[in-house]
Amino acid sequence: MAKILPPRVSEAAFRSFVAAAQNVVGKPYVFLDPDWDLTAYQDQYATTPKEVHQASAAVAPANLAQVQGILREAKQHGIPLWTISTGKNFAYGGPAPRVAGTVVLDLKRMNRIIEVNEKHAYAVVEPGVSYFDLYRHLQKIGSKLWIDPAAPGWGGVLGNLVDHGAGYTPYGDHLLMQCGMEVVLADGKVVQTAMGALPGSKTTHLYKYGMGPWADGLFTQSNFGVVTRIGIWLMPEPPGYKPYMITYENEDDLHEITERVRPLKLNMVIPNAATTVEMLWETAVQKQKRDYYTGKGPLPDSARKKIREDLRIGVWNFYAAAYGPPPIMETNIEVVRDMLASIPGARMYFAEDRVGDIGWEYRERLMRGVPNMTEYNLMNWIPNGGHMDFSPISPVTGEDAVRQYHLIRDRCNKAGFDYIGEMLVGWRDMHHIFCLLYDVSDTDEKRRAHALFDELISAAADAGYGEYRTHLDFMDRIADTYGWNGGAQQKLHQRLKDQMDPAGILSPGKMGIWPKGRSPEARS
After folding, report:
1. Which of 72, 304, 403, 468 is catalytic?
2. In the 3-class helix/strand/coil scheme, how is 53-81 assigned residue by residue?
3. Is 319 a catalytic residue?
4. C-alpha–C-alpha distance, residues 174 and 157, integer Å
5. What is the mean pLDDT of residues 418-426?
6. Active-site residue among 469, 477, 482, 518?
7. What digits encode the pLDDT tens for the residues 95-111?
8. Does 92 qualify as catalytic in the annotation?
9. Over pLDDT 90: what percentage of the chain?
């Protein structure tokens, strides 16, 4: 690929920045070759040409002082920076920048686990710490604390949290479990948020809110600062753990499953992510589509029936777990059995019933905080598999679950793709994750996938459902759907951006938030 420059930056200014950056972090940690080291900063599953998100360079600081130094040089030379942590968020664009020519600020070298506090059950980590890193560290020191990993264990603890990610244990709402944050603002000033703002604070990672407005949320899914450290609450190992799976025979069962899950979650009979998984998700982590069907388009009903027989799964497959002393677990499981396993045709399974089942085993590990990579097998469902996740939020009602399912599934099948999705009930919401799989070597298939995603945004918004995070290519589209009162919320975000980063160097275009005068409309 040809070398490119950052937008509105001369070659002389860019060269001057590169030399300055090399002085700050060391020459080996400034990456410039578009055909070699910058390929690590591409969206490998892009449905648009790779040039759309091509970085002009990447720089990898090792500590707070180096981050400050890079921000200082970026401001002086007018260089836009796109911040990443581990860069593994491949469902939404991975390590690629939103705008071609942006320099990637890669924080993976900042990978210290600064503290593990066993008494108060928290850890303090830098951006480069993955779920695997934190899990292995806890195992090494003999900790009795559990982490809550996202499904691909190579993801970053900090990066997933600031993108509003979620997991599968009772601590699955990652932002809720965050406490204390260190942020570098665009002008290089370092801020400790909440209780950390008190010199010598004893409760930086114990009480989230501090005094005055709670600022931490401003630095999630935004481009207002660079988060360099977070505190994350960890779950004490419970005295017991018993996962279970319930299979359902009929597509229409989704309505009743969701209606019965809601009170179980609200009353915390099910304390963790209550996950209803459509059959092809369970299939794709352990089989390939060609094992059952070699034709074009969505899998036919005959093949779907054969899969269910072979894998002993349902059209819908529900996962959750009980935690605590055995008597409490058994009581809760009996309530779940009465509520969820009493739907006609339902079957309830436990660990001894699913020995050797890949789909069961990876979810059993996730619900007890053990990171793994099994879910990434989804990419093998089709040849040259790539993916984007479409992620609308739904009320926890049967009507909404069925409505969203048909809204996505029907359009997906019409466009020639398989519906592969799951619905995760949190506190009072349901995350509907649709994994759109396509052949990255097929130009027409990528075009259709891109068009389908765009269509889903409009259809979901028209039905009252908003996405909670998204791919680089669709950040502006989805931001525009949050248009109540003339887009008042987005205008607020824009006012904050203009004040906090007037030079516009931090992650331009992140979630549709642009530096003044540099929106897509202004650039056209």
Report:
1. 468
2. HCCCEEECCCCHHHHHHHHHHHHHHCCCE
3. no
4. 9
5. 97
6. 469
7. 999 999 999 999 999 99
8. yes
9. 98
